[in-house]
Amino acid sequence: MLDLMMNKSNDLEIREAFHKKKLSQQHKNKDTLIIDELGLLHGSNRIDIAVIGKKIHGYEIKSAKDNLKRLEGQLNSYSRTLQKLTFVIAPEHLVDVMKFIPQWCGVIIAEKGVRGGITFRSIRKALLNPDFDKTSAAHLLWKNEAQFMLSSLGYDKKSTNKKRIELYKLISQSLSTNELVGKIKETLSTRENWRAE
Questions:
Q1: DSSP 8-state class, residue 168
Q2: Is 38 within 8 Å of 46 (Cβ atoms)?
Q3: Number of Cβ atoms within 10 Å of the Cβ of 114
Q4: So what's the pLDDT on residue 6?
């Protein structure tokens, strides 16, 4: 029984192995930003790993020690703010996760071996999320960042002196999806006194 418990994966070891084995090329790419525990929609949910390149791709880890109770609420946030989403899961979650998640979500099995190593097996590749919402994605910006972005787009002070949600709507109306993702990546990569915990 003890051996079985020791062989159960946890979030941290899956995360570390995923960075090393699956994201090594992205880490070398200066045009790609990788953030652990990125808060979405002002912290209503966090995605375990966000990879922001030409697209915003989130990776949600469900280890053997996790349950799926929060999955519905998480999916609501993820489907609005992420262009791609992949679940990195322990084998015991496969049936339940596949029943619940949309077809556009990717699935990777993370299996812990007898010596403690984590191996990954791709089950389904992530497709573009049809429900991606630019206004929701713009929530990744702080209010002052949104104001600065709008000013750089030619909006006057009166237009930028509004509530955050109004600023996010203006940004989503003013930028294409690709432009918005590029601006978000640029802003997060140069943000000072901040990092995802």
A1: H
A2: yes
A3: 8
A4: 58
